[in-house]
Recover the amino acids of this structure.
């Protein structure tokens, strides 16, 4: 039976993970969650967050 899914522990991340993965979907999110700044977007590179970047191009950096 699969574990219950929940959101990654990084506030800007949209990834759904199961309990067996821990609190975060990636090392990127684990490290980003420790920083005092909050990100509007997630850079983990997973499909859910890639879709977020492509859906909101006005939030992308120009440089």
């Amino acid at each position: 039976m699969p574990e219950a899914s929940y959101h990654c522990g990084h506030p800007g991340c949209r990834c759904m993970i199961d309990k067996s993965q821990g609190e975060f979907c990636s090392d990127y999110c684990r490290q980003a969650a420790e920083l005092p700044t909050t990100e509007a977007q997630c850079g983990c590179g997973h499909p859910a967050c890639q879709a977020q970047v492509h859906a909101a191009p006005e939030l992308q950096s120009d440089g």
Summary: The helical segments are 27-34, 47-55.
